[in-house]
Design brief:
The protein has 188 residues and is mainly α. It is built from 11 helices and no strands. Helix content is 65%, strand content 0%.
């Protein structure tokens, strides 16, 4: 099993963009929180969230399979390799089946919507963002067009949780890490 530090170094080596790194941190936060909620191994889930998109900038045309193959070649655990593939079943052909795979799938798209919603707030702070505000943004199809609403809905279904409870849960996980995510707001 790779250490968190090894996963972080790999992610940084393959991912030059700060925005994609912050996205992976946000998914890591959600995965860590879900691991605690479900009584699962927090480190494994966090590492999986941290590296799920590490190959996107280098190999967008073969993501996530290129990255998953690379991790397998390094001897990473099959549960992480498979979860990386399963977070993008439309590209990999691997459907999310395990609880960790379903949590990763569910956490990926919603972090993008939450981040986009923070960026348009006057204070640019995740701390003042509410689920009520996210519901409005979710319904507005012209807002954050890149966020696949059907994937967000399917993710909550796969986890067996109410959509808006899921959104609130991920929002709280991200709020706890606002500084690292660059979402703490503008200084007064």
């Amino acid at each position: 099993m790779p250490s968190y530090q090894e996963a972080l170094e790999l992610m940084h080596e393959w991912t030059p963009s700060d925005s994609l790194r912050r996205h992976m941190y946000a998914v890591e936060d959600a995965m860590r929180a879900y691991a605690r909620k479900f009584g699962e191994d927090e480190e494994t889930w966090a590492i999986t969230g941290l590296i799920h998109d590490f190959d996107w900038e280098k190999y967008p045309e073969t993501h996530p399979n290129k990255g998953a193959d690379y991790l397998a070649g390094l001897g990473w655990p099959e549960e992480i390799v498979r979860a990386v593939r399963a977070h993008a079943p439309e590209r990999s052909g691997v459907e999310p089946e395990t609880l960790m795979e379903r949590a990763l799938y569910a956490s990926d798209e919603i972090t993008g919507l939450i981040t986009a919603a923070v960026y348009v707030r006057p204070d640019r702070s995740i701390h003042t963002l509410t689920v009520k505000s996210l519901k409005k943004k979710f319904k507005d199809k012209s807002f954050a067009r890149g966020v696949d609403r059907e994937m967000v809905k399917r993710g909550a279904e796969l986890l067996g949780v109410d959509l808006w409870e899921h959104v609130g849960f991920v929002l709280e996980a991200m709020q706890a890490d606002a500084e690292r995510l660059g979402l703490a707001g503008e200084p007064a």
